[in-house]
Design goal:
The complex is a heterodimer. By secondary structure, chain A is α+β, with helices and mostly antiparallel strands. Helices cover about 50% and strands about 15% of the residues of chain A. In chain B, strand 6, helix 2 and strand 7 form a beta-alpha-beta unit. By secondary structure, chain B is an alpha/beta fold. Classes of the chains: A alpha+beta, B alpha/beta.
């Protein structure tokens, strides 16, 4: 057993740290107040350094850093800007990933390569007004017409919806069959006629990442843009979310570590009752509890990344990463804010934004309730029992 | 054009704390970084390469085997290849807490590196950071140029022209010209070094090699490296005097600053 990061992953972490601190951190306000995603020049610079293709092989324009490298990226991005991390996470972790997992070689060359290079930005269009956690309730229709499919429906809460060039969309091809054989994935280009952004959400947190409602109106998708086998779209989308879950744990780890570092800094500088508050047991216990949870999360995240990279089953562990990670990040951020006192509640400090930003991780990419179902289903299955949600 | 950039690995200053009272340096995290000015030197070389595909940039380091990491970082930022001069016969690194790696003196280091530059062959330009952050001596570049018998252009902010056997470069207040081959030194504020390219970071370890040369390869024996200078002892630099705190409104403070500058005859009127 060896818990050290490889040399290349250590260098990669330094690379990401340098990029986030020098390029992203000085522009947090600009990112947070933007309605149209991170500034274009910052996106271009991130593309230049390979940030949009971290886990994918170099033959597809990626960095070749695997799931471990991708977790390091999400950890580092989320330290500095959960909004930026969300844009990148939706692009890599679920949109490009779906094409990487189930796309044909032609689709990978046409879409994955420019996406990994950051020349095209991706979105993942699964959620609908009537189908959130219950993705099997998808109502968007895809009707075959000659060599094409005609898509009609509404997708909402779609990260990157307004800035994407490419979206992977789940639609019903056979309503009688539903999720088991009746749903199909499609690769859609946003400039095609019938792809319309109808609303941009005003959110509590991750305000610098655009979350949109998308209306598909008689959108014609050529047959070669069917993602995976016809009727198997639900499987593709669920499999993609599985991989994405680990990295939400990683992002939560970065966010939690960041606020712990701030809390430690504050505890040693802030003086009350005749000395730094770090000497107060109440503060020490909070710091110790935060550090303990973060350490457990770190081991969990990178062990799961190792499972993914070594092609072992990881579904249960990935769901635990997402569930535990998101809750640790919220708890730790709450404690860090408490240590800062009223100052932590101020908008001048990153704690207040941290708390708002952390909250979404308990919801998106499968709510934590869904994660519990996934975990329980995996555990019972290991004991030979199939449970039905 | 073949350009060698010298890369020094130093202890990360954010990883240690200085206790002035006990006159001790405590290493909390033993981590190493590339000397910052060397990244400016590398950037200057890479900018030549940006405009000329034929240009080859070689990173050259000297020290214990761990310097390998600094050289791979240089490749991850854009250097084409890397050479490490390292030999078990070189004195072991000094205790980490002493911060600076004074194993052989700059004279010995310069002679070894000059031999490496000659072994690399057909080098037109050597670019060095003006000084290292740890020792701050700035002694190596001059000695290296001396050992090579090349002209040295110190404190260069930009290369204006390079080719036809001549380099023209701008300092802050002067333009210099020298025949090639030549050596330039680059200060820390000369440019903004580029970041580490992710795919190159992966390839730097998985695909590319650092060539390592020992004393034998360069035709040296440990006796050849007898230092010209030895360190007779160390002491803490004197404590810097604290400035004066000006009370009152901003206007009053500004008036006070102006009055003090006038009194010291640093400004007129």
């Amino acid at each position: 057993m060896d818990f050290t990061f490889s040399k290349e992953h250590q260098l990669l972490r330094r690379a990401f740290r340098e990029f986030t601190e020098q390029e992203i951190a000085p522009r947090i306000d600009e990112i947070e107040h933007s309605k149209s995603g991170p500034p274009a020049d910052l996106m271009e610079k991130a593309a230049e350094y390979g940030i949009f293709g971290v886990p994918f092989p170099q033959k597809y324009g990626g960095m070749g850093a695997g799931e471990t490298g991708y977790c390091i990226l999400m950890e580092e991005l989320n330290r500095v800007s959960p909004s930026f991390a969300t844009v990148v996470g939706a692009h890599i972790g679920i949109s490009s990933m779906a094409i990487y997992l189930d796309g044909t070689e032609e689709q990978k060359q046409k879409y994955l390569v420019p996406m990994a290079k950051g020349e095209k930005i991706g979105a993942f269009a699964l959620t609908e007004p009537g189908a959130g956690s219950d993705a099997a309730a998808t109502r968007t229709r895809a009707v075959r017409e000659g060599d094409s499919y005609i898509l009609d429906g509404t997708k909402h809460f779609i990260t990157n919806g307004s800035i994407c060039d490419v979206a992977v969309v789940l639609a019903l091809t056979d309503p009688a069959l539903g999720p088991r054989g009746g749903m199909t994935g499609f690769i859609v280009e946003s400039q095609w006629e019938g792809f319309k952004v109808s609303k941009i959400e005003d959110k509590m947190g991750i305000r610098g990442s655009p979350t949109c409602e998308i209306v598909l109106e008689e959108l014609r998708v050529p047959q070669e843009n069917v993602l995976g086998p016809v009727g198997m779209g639900f499987v593709t989308f669920m499999k993609t979310l599985d991989v994405g879950r680990t990295t939400i744990g990683a992002a939560s780890l970065g966010g939690a570590q960041y606020v712990l570092d701030r809390a430690i800094e504050w505890a040693v500088t802030r003086e009350a009752f005749g000395g730094p508050i770090a000497h107060k047991q109440s503060i020490q216990w909070m710091i110790a509890d935060m550090a303990a949870e973060i350490e457990a999360l770190r081991s969990l995240v990178y062990r799961t990344a190792w499972l993914v990279d070594t092609k072992q089953p990881f579904s249960r562990e990935a769901a635990i990463c997402k569930l535990f990670g998101s809750e640790v990040c919220s708890r730790v951020t709450d404690k860090a804010l408490q240590i800062h006192g009223a100052l932590g509640y101020s908008r001048h400090m990153p704690l207040e934004r941290g708390l708002r930003d952390a909250r979404i991780s308990e919801i998106f990419e499968g709510t934590n309730e869904i994660q519990r179902i996934v975990i329980a289903a995996n555990i019972f299955q290991e004991h030979g029992v199939r449970i039905h949600p | 054009m073949k350009i060698v950039v010298t890369i020094k690995q130093i202890l990360d200053p954010s990883g240690f704390t200085v206790n002035r009272k006990r006159e001790k340096v405590f290493v909390n995290r033993e981590e190493y970084i590339v000397n910052p000015a060397d990244l400016n030197a590398l950037e200057m070389a890479l900018r030549v390469k940006d405009h000329d595909d034929e240009t080859e940039v070689v990173a050259l380091g000297l020290g214990p085997p761990r310097v390998d990491d600094a050289l791979r970082e240089a490749m991850a930022r854009g250097a084409d290849s890397a050479v490490l001069v390292s030999d078990p016969a070189l004195p072991a690194p000094v205790a980490q807490a002493q911060v600076a790696d004074l194993k052989i003196d700059a004279h010995g280091a310069a002679r070894l590196m000059a031999a490496a530059v000659e072994k690399i062959g057909d080098v037109n330009l050597v670019i060095c950071g003006t000084a290292a952050l740890d020792s701050g001596a700035g002694e190596l570049p001059g000695r290296l140029a001396e050992a090579l018998g090349w002209p040295v252009l110190p404190e260069v902010y930009a290369i204006d022209e390079l080719g036809d056997g001549v380099v023209r470069a701008s300092q802050r207040t002067a333009r210099l010209e020298a025949d090639l081959p030549a050596l330039l030194t680059v200060p820390r504020d000369a440019n903004e070094p580029r970041h580490i390219y992710g795919a190159r970071a992966i390839n730097a370890y998985r695909q590319w090699q650092v060539v390592t040369w020992g004393l034998d390869d360069l035709g040296f024996t440990p006796d050849d490296l007898e230092p010209l200078t030895t360190v007779g002892g160390r002491r803490f630099p004197p404590k810097r005097a604290l400035g004066t705190r000006l009370e009152g409104s901003i206007e009053e403070a500004v008036e006070s600053v102006i009055a003090q500058l006038r009194a010291k005859e640093l400004i007129e009127g």
